[in-house]
């Protein structure tokens, strides 16, 4: 007899399915939009007028790579405060350059640019594919865009054999201009390299009725085709690309799907966090504030809304690595499967303060979710998130939290198989929290 799949196993299976589809920020937003539609959320368009109703569920996208979903509570309207969660859709990767064709020694290679703070060594000897957004001119002369995903392995970055670099294990470094152009194929001498022609063929394969006349430009990246998996002798871990930060996006999305409709809620997933968030679609841009002002309508309502709201910035945390435990503060080394991590930094690299973390500790206890804490070593630098940016741009109370992770910014990261479920459970309780979000 087949055993009934546990809640955690079911969640992780669905998380892995999401990660497989969300190979770029564009694909992540498309998948999230589809799931929101299935959960009863209606899509809004930024350049059209909005009619919002109590109890309504809505979402809006910007640039196809950022998304905001929100629900207006039946019992508590937005002026009473929004339960907000923020995450980001982008991950460090290799982006294809505008003129990418490199032909050397009879091989066609692809010129790429490093996006964000990628850990480069793990990109070697992986089966890579290509995906993203393509802008093209259709047969009627109009500008259109479409998503593409080659899905199959079409590229690889071969390592240099140790016989040709005897110091590889002790001193090899990666030159991102010279060492990482992926290998696409062998090219006969009489064949001209034309990447845009290749994209046109792919567009016609994926979108037969697109009427593409000419590929104009694109935003494409390479990604690892190895599927996400639950791994470990006792299946304790999730291994995948883009866990930072699609794991948070999915956990927050699941919480939104389980919203009870009482209080007002919002989820924002921004693009461009890994490169500073300063863009029209990034957290350091106007997207969130613009949506909040349209929800509030009146200036006084907007002021009350931001003062009474609270945001949880959900972004992965550094788990304490057993081989490098000295890289952590001895009292703040989060363990995988030990629960979500409250991230604190006195210099405001994280937005947490005692009021916001205190509220979350109370909520976690009610939800039965364990919490851990992370503070960087005092003699080491500290990363940041959309939390301080959002707090500074919008003025909303904020805290930073995340699932502990190994190999952050690698092509394949590792998280605990219990932690994503616990994060989703905690965020669901936050969305459904009644009463004030501040200290009395």
Automatic annotation (TrEMBL):
What EC class is this? hydrolase
A Gene Ontology biological process term: proteolysis
UniProt keyword Hydrolase, yes or no: yes
> Taxonomically, which superkingdom?
Bacteria
Annotated keywords: Aminopeptidase, Hydrolase, Metal-binding, Metalloprotease, Protease, Zinc
Question: Which stretch is the leader sequence?
Answer: none
Query: What is the E.C. number?
Result: 3.4.11.-
Task: Tell me which GO cellular component terms the UniProt record holds.
Answer: cytoplasm
Pfam families recorded: Peptidase_M18
Task: Name the needed cofactors.
Answer: Zn(2+)
GO molecular function annotation? aminopeptidase activity; metallopeptidase activity; zinc ion binding
PANTHER family per UniProt? ASPARTYL AMINOPEPTIDASE (PTHR28570:SF3)
Annotated family: Belongs to the peptidase M18 family.
Return the protein name.
M18 family aminopeptidase
Question: What is the organism of origin for this protein?
Answer: Pseudohalioglobus lutimaris
Query: Highest lineage ranks of the organism?
Result: Bacteria, Pseudomonadati, Pseudomonadota, Gammaproteobacteria, Cellvibrionales
């Amino acid at each position: 007899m087949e055993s009934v799949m546990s809640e955690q196993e079911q969640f992780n299976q669905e998380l892995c399915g999401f990660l497989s589809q969300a190979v770029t920020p564009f694909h992540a937003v498309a998948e999230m939009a589809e799931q929101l539609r299935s959960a009863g959320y209606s899509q809004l368009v930024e350049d059209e007028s909005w009619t919002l109703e109590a109890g309504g569920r809505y979402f809006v996208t910007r640039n196809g790579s950022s998304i905001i979903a929100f629900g207006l509570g039946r019992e508590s309207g937005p002026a009473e405060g929004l339960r907000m969660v923020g995450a980001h859709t982008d991950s460090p990767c290799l982006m294809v350059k505008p003129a990418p064709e490199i032909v050397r020694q009879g091989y066609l290679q692809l010129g790429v640019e490093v996006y964000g703070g990628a850990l480069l060594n793990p990109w070697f000897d992986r089966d890579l594919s290509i995906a993203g957004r393509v802008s093209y001119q259709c047969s009627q002369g109009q500008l259109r865009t479409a998503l593409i995903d080659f899905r199959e392995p079409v590229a690889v970055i071969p390592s240099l054999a140790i016989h040709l670099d005897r110091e590889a294990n002790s001193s090899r470094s990666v030159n991102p201009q010279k060492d990482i152009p992926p290998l696409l194929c062998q090219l006969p001498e009489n064949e001209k390299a034309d990447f845009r022609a290749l994209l046109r063929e792919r567009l016609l394969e994926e979108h037969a009725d697109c009427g593409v006349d000419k590929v104009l430009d694109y935003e494409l990246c390479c990604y690892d085709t190895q599927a996400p998996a639950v791994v470990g002798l006792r299946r304790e871990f999730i291994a995948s690309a883009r866990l930072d930060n699609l794991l948070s996006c999915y956990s927050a999305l699941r919480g939104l799907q389980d919203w009870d409709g009482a209080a007002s809620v919002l989820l924002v997933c921004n693009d461009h966090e890994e490169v500073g968030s300063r863009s029209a679609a990034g957290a350091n841009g106007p997207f969130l504030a613009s949506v909040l002002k349209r929800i509030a309508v009146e200036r006084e309502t907007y002021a009350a809304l931001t003062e009474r709201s609270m945001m949880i910035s959900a972004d992965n945390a550094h788990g304490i690595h057993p081989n490098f435990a000295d890289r952590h503060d001895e009292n703040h080394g989060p363990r995988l499967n030990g629960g979500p991590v409250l991230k604190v930094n006195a210099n405001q690299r994280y937005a947490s303060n005692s009021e916001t973390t205190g509220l979350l500790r109370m909520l976690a206890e009610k939800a039965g979710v364990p919490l851990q804490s992370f503070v960087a070593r005092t003699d080491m630098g500290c990363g940041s998130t959309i939390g301080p940016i959002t707090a500074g741009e919008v003025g909303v109370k904020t805290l930073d939290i995340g699932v502990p992770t190994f190999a952050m910014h690698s092509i394949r990261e590792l998280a605990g198989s219990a932690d994503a479920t616990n994060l989703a459970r905690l965020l669901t309780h936050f969305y459904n929290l009644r009463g004030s979000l501040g200290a009395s």
